[in-house]
Structures are given as structure tokens and as C-alpha cells.
Design goal:
11 helices, single chain, 4-stranded mixed beta sheet, alpha+beta, 4-stranded antiparallel beta sheet, 382 residues, globular
């Protein structure tokens, strides 16, 4: 086992850290308050190669590995989880899905623009009655010969209002169950495709989350991804990689909260000395550092599995389950260490605490991760 990052990895991490501190940090509280989408910052992240981190350079991507991806995600998430989730969705769900399973024509037409950040993508799976139960798709795609007609509703779609390319999961043949589900590329502006109002959320308020409505939306046959009936497998394979991105986001939220708490504990005085000198606070910091490091090891292991070509279904589920738990618990502790100051926006930790909760919900709730892990555990017993 080698836990040493390469020189390239260190350079990538430092570049992401510098961008987060110099570009994302100024105005992050104001963006959160106003629910402002950081469009100009997304463009800059595209220029840095953050929107197509693992995409082959021949399609405009950076050609980096999954370890690089989680390093970037952690640094961005320490400062602004609203910005980092856009990076995660564009990389893990949209770019990966197209590069791994799309046709060459689809890659040339869509992936090249997505990987450079010229446009951004959205992944449309969740519905009012089909969140964790992805097989219960009510959105339909009727085969009309040379095209499909899509009808239905998608909920809680990240990048929903700002994306140009949407990967939509829909039911083509209900009698076939999950084998009758397909994935389609739908372009913004297609007649019948309507975007609902932006959601008013607890956290990641700067990210663009909408309900999408499809009313007799015509999609050409060449916009179906993979063979007929491949959609459910496409969604599950894509989400396994997405969990690595969200696990890294959770890790970043936790480590960002910890760094703020550590700094504050060395500045704030009580009973004649810095509060870091009080055992009650010192022990909190020790627990935070330990749990965050454990989460980091799980996240890195999942990324390493992906880089090595190993099956990463279980390792990504474990990483997301544990890292999201750590993000929630340690951001709460960071608020506690800040005392009354932790309850006001100026000190950032209250925002990190609000942002942390969603990591236990999207791209598979913690309960779904336990189902994935338990199945893997039981399958390993001969």
C-alpha cells in the first residue's frame, strides 16, 4: 500500500485549493443567501479542466484519474458545495455516462462541449414517485419508429435550469420492468420540454435545482444511449461513479468545517486561554480529525478501485455512506466549537452544516447505500 500522492496529484490538489480560495470564497455567502448560480465561476472551472476531469483529451477532457477527481472535489467542497455538485454531476453522471456508453456520434456532438465546460449537463432520474426506487419510472418514452415521444416529470434535477444537455431515464415498455427502461439525450429548447421554478432549498442553495416537465417531447432515435432496454443498467452504473463524487463532496464539507473550527479554536479565548487548550474542545478536534481521515481513506479507496478497473459498487457505497455521515456530524461539531458565532453566516460553518445534509440524500440515500453494501456482503458468502 502506498498512501503518497504523486507530484501531479499534489499540483492538481493545490490548483483546486487555490481556485477555491481565490475565486469561490469571495461572495459565497451572498450567493447562498440569494440562491445565485455561479455561471462565471463554472466557466472558469471549465477553463481549468474541472468540468471534464476524467474525459479523454480527444473529447476535450483533462484525461485525469479518479484520484485527481476526488482531490478536486474535496477542495472545491470545503468552500462551496453548490459549485462542487455542478462539477460532480457534469463529470460523474453526464460526461462519464456519455463517454462510457454513448455512440461516437453522441460523443462528438455532446461530450466535447460538456468536457470543456462550454455547456453543462443534467442527469434526470428522480421523479415524484421514483427516487430511491429507480425501477418505478412513470416518465414514458413511446417508440414511434424514427423517434421517441417522452412524457412525464423529473424532480430535484441539479443544473436543471442551466444545462444544455439532459440525460433522461424513461420507461419504454412497462411489461418488461427495469429491462424496458431507456436513457435519452434531450436538448434544452426541444418543444414540449419545460423547466419549472427553481427549488428553495435548505442547503447547496447556489446550485440550480428544478422540476422538469416533458409533454410530447420528440427525441430522435439516435439520441437513445445504448441498446433498447439498457437505461436502467446505464443509470445504476453511472450512479456508482457518482457516489464517489458525492462522497468526495461530503469529505470536503467535513474537512472544510474542521479547518474552520481548528482555526477558530486557536483564536477564541475563554477562561483566560485559547479554547483549543481546553480538553473538551481538544478532544472534539481529535475526534473530528480521526473520523475525517477515515472517511478520506474510504473515498480514496473507491477512487483507486475505479482507476484500477476493479468493481467499485461496494467501495463507492461505503465511501458515500460514511463520508456523508461524517460531513453531517462534524459540521455540527464545528458549529458547536464556534458557539454563538457558529450560528451566524459570517463564520461559514452554519452553511456547511446545511450543505452537509444533502450528501445523505442525493445520488442514493444512506439507506440505499446500506442495501448496496449488504447485498455485496451477503453475495461474498459462499
Amino acid at each position: 500500500m502506498d498512501f503518497t500522492l504523486t507530484e501531479e496529484h499534489l499540483m492538481i490538489r493545490d490548483a483546486a485549493r487555490d481556485f477555491a480560495q481565490t475565486e469561490l470564497l469571495p461572495g459565497v455567502i451572498e450567493r447562498d443567501n440569494a440562491q445565485t448560480f455561479p455561471g462565471e465561476l463554472v466557466r472558469k472551472m471549465g477553463e481549468l479542466g474541472f468540468m471534464g476531469i476524467m474525459v479523454d483529451p480527444k473529447y476535450g477532457g483533462s484525461g485525469m484519474d479518479a484520484i485527481s477527481y476526488v482531490l478536486i472535489m474535496e477542495e472545491l467542497s470545503k468552500i462551496d458545495a453548490s459549485a462542487s455538485v455542478m462539477v460532480s454531476v457534469n463529470n460523474s453522471l453526464v460526461c462519464y455516462g456519455l463517454e462510457a456508453y454513448g455512440s461516437e456520434e453522441q460523443k462528438q456532438k455532446y461530450l466535447t462541449k460538456l468536457a470543456t465546460g462550454e455547456c453543462i449537463g443534467a442527469f434526470c432520474l428522480s421523479e415524484p414517485e421514483a427516487g430511491s426506487d429507480a425501477t418505478s419510472q412513470k416518465t414514458t418514452a413511446i417508440d414511434m419508429g424514427d423517434h421517441y415521444v417522452i412524457n412525464g416529470t423529473k424532480n430535484w434535477i441539479t443544473n436543471g435550469g442551466r444545462a444544455e444537455v439532459y440525460l433522461v431515464i424513461a420507461q419504454t415498455d412497462r411489461e418488461k420492468g427495469h429491462r424496458g427502461i431507456n436513457a435519452f439525450i434531450v436538448e434544452k429548447g426541444t418543444p414540449g420540454f419545460d423547466i419549472g421554478p427553481k427549488e428553495d432549498k435548505l442547503g447547496i442553495r447556489g446550485s440550480d435545482t428544478h422540476t422538469l416537465q416533458f409533454n410530447d417531447v420528440k427525441v430522435p432515435k439516435e439520441n437513445r444511449i445504448g441498446e433498447d432496454g439498457f437505461g436502467f443498467k446505464f443509470a445504476m452504473k453511472t450512479l456508482s461513479g457518482g457516489r464517489i463524487g458525492i462522497a468526495a463532496q461530503a469529505l470536503g464539507i467535513a474537512s472544510g468545517a474542521y479547518e474552520l473550527a481548528l482555526k477558530y479554536s486557536k483564536e477564541r479565548k475563554a477562561f483566560g486561554t485559547e479554547i483549543s487548550n481546553h480538553q473538551a474542545i481538544a478532544f472534539k478536534l481529535a475526534d473530528m480529525a480521526t473520523e475525517i481521515e477515515a472517511a478520506r481513506m474510504l473515498v480514496m479507496k473507491a477512487a483507486w478501485d475505479k482507476d484500477q478497473g476493479n468493481n467499485y459498487d461496494m467501495s463507492s457505497a461505503m465511501a458515500k455512506l460514511y463520508a456523508s455521515k461524517v460531513a453531517m456530524e462534524q459540521s455540527v461539531e464545528a458549529v458547536q466549537i464556534h458557539g454563538g458565532n457558529g450560528f451566524v453566516k459570517e463564520y461559514h460553518v452554519e452553511r456547511l452544516m446545511r450543505d452537509a445534509k444533502i450528501t445523505q440524500i442525493y445520488e442514493g440515500t444512506s439507506e440505499i447505500q446500506k442495501i448496496v453494501i449488504s447485498r455485496g456482503v451477503l453475495k461474498s458468502i459462499k
